[in-house]
Structures are given as structure tokens and as C-alpha cells.
Amino acid sequence: MTRFDITQTNAAVERLIETTENPRHRWLLHAYNRHRYLEMAGRWQEIFAPEMTVEHPVYHFNVFGINTVLDGAEAVQAVYDEWARTAQCVFYAGDEKLAVGDNMICSTATIYQQTPGALLAEAGAPVDPGAHYLVGNVEHMIWPYDDEGRLVGEDVWEIDESTRQIIPLDPTEVLTVEMSAKLLDPLIKPLPARTF
């Protein structure tokens, strides 16, 4: 039995959806929920549907010692494609706390991203290049949305890199993108009709 369950990654999001009455806030939470499930299932192309994401999103990442800006859909899509090809799109969230406003969702959670050992070894980590790991850290995220409820970008940063964890995965715990998609497909719902 695995220590991690990808079907529970969005549990905090789904709990907040159930208790949120503001129609706009509920819609943003549904979009956030769908986005994350699509990403983890390797179906990232669907994230760029016109009702979900602006034409020119901008992502800011300051995590794992990398400080970068992805400026525009092509740059963002290249990262999603790389993550899907290497199964780095598989991630888990622990102890997530969320807040939603009219034009943003904020999250704090411990995020565990599945990462091939070869990529970690290239970055200088003392790991087995043939193994897989979860790289865990506490992250803050702000996802801004426009007035139509479309994602404008992501601002993601690691709070304290000294608490970063590299957790070895048993081969039975490693998920392929196909396995992730099969587990998540029943949870990926269409967006509800807009009522705001």
C-alpha cells in the first residue's frame, strides 16, 4: 500500500467548495480543482481552454532553488509538457490551507512532486539516478484570475528551502502518467455554468 494517494491531493479544495456559497468564489474553486486534476493526469492541454486560462498567462516560480518567470502560454505549456513526459506532473498536497477571493486563490501546503532521480542527480543531489523520489517542501501559491474567472498565472514560492525533503519512492509507489490519469479521470468534472 502506498503512503501517498493522488486522489486525495485536492481534498482541501473539495472541502472548501462544499462550504463556499459565493457563486464566483465557488466557480473559481471548481476551475482550480479542475486545473490541478488535469495537470496531474497529464491532460495539461485542456487547462488552456479559453474559459479557463487567459491567452498570455505568466507564472512566477521560486522553488527548489530555481527562480524563474514563464512568460506566455508557450513557455508555460513547455513546462507542463516536460512534467507530463517525465511524470513530474504527479504531485501530492499535505495539510493544505486555502482562501478564495474575487480575483485570486491562495494556498499554503506541503507539496510533494514526483521526480526522477536522474534529474535530481543532475542538479547535484546525492541520489540514485535510476530511482524516483518525492521532492517535498512547504509552498505558498497565489493564483490570480481575471474578471471572467480565467487564470492569469501562478505565483509559487518555497517558504524555507532548509526544510526541503527528498523522499525515496519504492518502485511500487511510482505512478506513470497513465496510472495517474486512470485514477483521476473519474474526479475530473466539467466546469459548472457561470452564475456570476
From TrEMBL:
UniProt superkingdom: Bacteria
Protein name (record): Nuclear transport factor 2 family protein
